[in-house]
Design goal:
Blueprint (H helix, E strand, L loop, with lengths): L5 H22 L6 E5 L2 E4 H17 L4 E4 L3 E3 L7 E8 L1 H5 L6 E8 L2 E9 L4 E6 L3 E4 L2 E2 L12 E4 L9 H11 L5 E3 L4 H9 L5 E4 L4 H13 L3 E3 L7 H4 L2 E4 L4 H12 L2
Parallel strand pairs: 3-5, 11-12, 11-13
Antiparallel strand pairs: 1-2, 3-4, 5-6, 6-7, 7-8, 8-9, 9-10, 13-15, 14-15
Length: about 270
């Protein structure tokens, strides 16, 4: 049985408080005011409202902590204190197109180490959470990565570069290397949920390049605590700085890494 810390309870309360406004905005998606951050990279008023609510709630609980926020950027806290890493709406493009696959992602980083994570899907009411040394959970159910060993039965997830973002030629080479070897590849458009689903055994592996720290922070800890392996493309653990990530169950991580590097011709 799971024993949630006070900190996890704080994170879940914040995520659940913002959920009704996200669901309301999702229901009125055609009326949202949308501005462009860049080519095919949108930010809606829903993002901004959700981020403001999360920041308010988390600041009340830990007023001395800093933030790394998707929209507002870095906010300094007191020296030597942890910081929150927050994506108020991971899967914004899904959201804006009426696709019900998006989430709130919150992580805690202490002295450069990820220690707590919450990924909450307002549509399915699934609450994925993890704490360092205490495992990964979906509600009250302990999570473990899958045990598959055969690439031919494995399903991997990824993110596809889009207009103005990412390394398109690299991606296509990697996809060409992986596709003939596996049972399937999925692209659902929310990196945090991809990693949570990997932790839950729904996927067997995941790779992506050119993604931001707030997209992956909570998911990194989730996968580790569910028994998965996770590295950057160079085999190190500096994913949030490099923007590249390869994650899988322990049986398939080396295989997936080899295929990615084969595609990149490293």
């Amino acid at each position: 049985m799971s024993v949630r810390s006070t900190l996890i309870s704080v994170m879940e309360r914040a995520a659940r408080r913002v959920a009704p406004q996200l669901r309301r905005d999702f229901g009125e998606v055609e009326n949202l005011q949308v501005s462009n951050k860049g080519p095919a990279d949108f930010v809606s008023q829903a993002d901004l409202r959700a981020e403001a609510t999360l920041r308010e709630d988390l600041s009340k609980a830990r007023p001395e902590w800093g933030f790394l926020l998707e929209e507002a950027g870095a906010v300094e806290g007191q020296a030597d204190m942890p910081r929150w890493i927050v994506d108020p709406l991971d899967g914004t493009t899904n959201f804006l197109h009426g696709i019900p696959h998006f989430c709130v992602s919150i992580a805690v980083e202490e002295a450069g180490e990820l220690t707590s994570a919450m990924i909450y899907n307002p549509i399915t009411d699934e609450s994925f959470w993890a704490e360092k040394g205490k495992g990964a959970w979906l509600g009250e159910r302990r999570l473990r990565v899958s045990a598959r060993r055969d690439l031919g039965t494995a399903i991997f997830a990824t993110g596809i570069p889009f207009k103005g973002h990412g390394k398109h030629e690299d991606f296509h080479r990697v996809l060409t290397a992986i596709t003939p070897q596996v049972a399937g590849i999925r692209r659902f458009g929310a990196a945090a949920l991809d990693l949570a689903w990997l932790a839950a055994g729904r996927y067997d592996g995941y790779w992506e390049d050119s993604i931001q720290p707030w997209d992956m922070a909570a998911g990194i800890l989730m996968v580790r605590e569910a028994g998965g392996l996770i590295t950057d493309y160079d085999g190190g653990t500096n994913m949030m700085a490099s923007g590249s990530i390869i994650a899988a169950n322990p049986n398939l991580h080396a295989n997936l890494t080899g295929l990615v590097l084969q595609g990149l011709q490293r």
